[in-house]
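Hi,

I'm pasting everything inline rather than attaching a file, because the server keeps stripping attachments. The sequence lines come first, and each chain or strand is labelled.
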Amino acid sequence: MNIRFFSITALLLGALALMAFMIPQEKKKGGPWEIPQEYVSMENPYKDDASLEKYGKQEYMKHCRSCHGNIGEGDGPKARNLEFDPGNLSDAAWQDKVTDGELYYMSIIGRDEMPNYESKITDEETRWALVNYLRTLKK
Amino acid sequence: MKRYLLGIALVVSSISLAIGQNEEEKPKDKPVRAPFESGYLIDNQTTVIQSPKTLEFIIQHKFGTMDKGFTDLFGLYAPGANIRMGLNYSLIKNLQIGYGVTRLNMYNDFSVKYTIFEQTRNNTIPVAVAVYANMGIDGRNKEVYGLDFKGSDRFSYFTQLIVGRRVNDWLSLQVNASFTHFNKTDSLIDHDKVSIGFNGRARFSPQSSILFQYDVPLKIKSIAEHREFTNPSKPNLGFGWEIRTSTHAFHIYVSTADGIVPQHNAMFNQNDWTKGDLMFGFSITRLWSF
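And the predicted assembly:
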């Protein structure tokens, strides 16, 4: 009786341990962004303005790096505590797909865990400087 | 009479038209980017006020003087550390109100800061100008005031004019002039004190800066109440390191004065940096936007 009981318990514990390996450990992917058309087609008035690069970098390091990581790969120290994967900003395919206006919306307006930065980055030129810097992360 | 009124109306309307045209012609000169990362600079205020509807929580902590060396780990484990916790709220653009409580003398301070001018990028306005004022209420037991105690004895006032300039991308400097008044002081100590200060920050990475300050209480005979200055307050020297994130500013510093509310330092600081009276301290701010 005892041997049978212990065997079944060991089997169940073993099965549980094996199941732990099957549970996906990756973070959930956020669904597609619903970006208003006015932002999708928004023109970047500071496109290719190299003088803004240092300001864009400063803003990225201050506001974004903790989650998105040093080079945008989504591996910042706070990323592990997020519910959703912050994504890979350096991914060339993704970068080619989004417009500057969409990047602006995602970065400044945000959604869910991605905070709204309208009150923290109040200057329009600085917001576009950040968008320009995000473009430089493309690999 | 009617002619005069008509003439005045004509002049006013032509001036306003001229100003309107002028405004249309000139491109707007925007304020410079972040001259300082925080409204605080060690023991001083900067001309920076957070954007409207932002609540700031601050913890300021000063340890003991480091003159005992390893005995109390350079003051880190010394008794009598001073702490202030406070809240600031930006009501509208460039106007902030605040409240804080300090351990030393249990000061309750109510403050207001207004940035009158912001420095602009094309030097239309070459400097930022701000005024900071607070009222402190000494919260100690009334027995410390001796006989003839009145509630108003607890009150002290501090007013400061700050002029700052962001010199370039990495260097910002400020000068300030302050007036301090205590309703009640010891019999040989003046009630009023004028001081001046110089401080700044040098940024060395996107998030980190070196901070410095030097505040000098002045000994002005014309406003003195006594022939000799008894225990005049000493200058406050400080150096620090600032780290800024999206919602926090951290300061780790070494400074002279043991007080945290500025009027206390201006009036009573007896620590002398030339004799090694320096102490470690830190500040942490946290911002919430509404």
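Chain B has a mean pLDDT of 90.

If the labels don't parse on your end, tell me and I'll reformat.
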